[in-house]
From TrEMBL:
Enzyme Commission code: 5.2.1.8
Domain of life: Eukaryota
Protein name from the UniProt record: Peptidyl-prolyl cis-trans isomerase
Keywords assigned by UniProt, alphabetized: Isomerase, Rotamase
GO biological process: positive regulation of transcription initiation by RNA polymerase II
Native species: Penicillium canariense
Top-level taxonomy: Eukaryota, Fungi, Dikarya, Ascomycota, Pezizomycotina
Record keyword Isomerase present: yes
Catalytic reaction list: [protein]-peptidylproline (omega=180) = [protein]-peptidylproline (omega=0)
Domain WW: 4-38
């Protein structure tokens, strides 16, 4: 793997909601929009130019080989990496409460009463809610591992069970 210039344990990921790269440490679950302290900025510039421009990411037209498209419904809890959202300035619910909320949503989707996208508009703690939870196209290494593993295991149109990540708990639907 190319040297990104980031300190040990850090990696570059891509935010689909903001369409920007960010810096993530899977061991500590820390994420930042700005490079972490002790980054070799010259190496990082080269790495970003090579690996994170639209042409390098192969998604100028919105999709590329090996990428999938998913929507999701996120319910955050007080132990989420950022326990706030467009819906609530401070999220105080427990992880167990978040899972119970998601189980109710899951039942409504499975029964055909509503769709994940329609629920996401009002119930998701992700900014993708305004797009019915649509995260756009992404490939391997662009999402949190638990999310990615669940998303790539889905068939077209299928909705996952509850998936836990550092961001909270999700229902994921593979769209393409």
């Amino acid at each position: 793997m190319a040297d990104s210039g980031l300190p040990a344990g850090w990696e570059v990921r891509h935010s689909n909601s903001k369409n920007l790269p960010y810096y993530f440490n899977p061991a500590t679950k820390e994420s930042h929009w700005e490079p972490p302290t002790d980054t070799d900025t010259e190496k990082l510039k080269l790495y970003m130019a090579t690996h994170h421009t639209p042409a390098a990411r192969n998604d100028v037209d919105g999709r590329s080989e090996g990428k999938i498209r998913c929507s999701h419904l996120l319910v955050k809890h007080r132990d989420s990496r950022r326990p706030s959202s467009w819906r609530e300035a401070e999220i105080t619910r427990s992880k167990e409460e978040a899972i119970e909320i998601l189980k109710v949503h899951e039942q409504r989707i499975q029964s055909g009463e509503t769709s994940l996208g329609d629920l996401a508009v009002s119930e998701s703690d992700c900014s993708s809610a305004r797009k019915k939870g649509d995260l756009g196209f992404f490939g391997h290494g662009e999402m949190q591992k638990e999310f990615e593993d669940a998303a790539f295991a889905l068939q077209h149109g299928q909705v996952s069970g509850i998936v836990e990540t550092a961001s909270g708990v999700h229902l994921i639907q593979r769209v393409q």
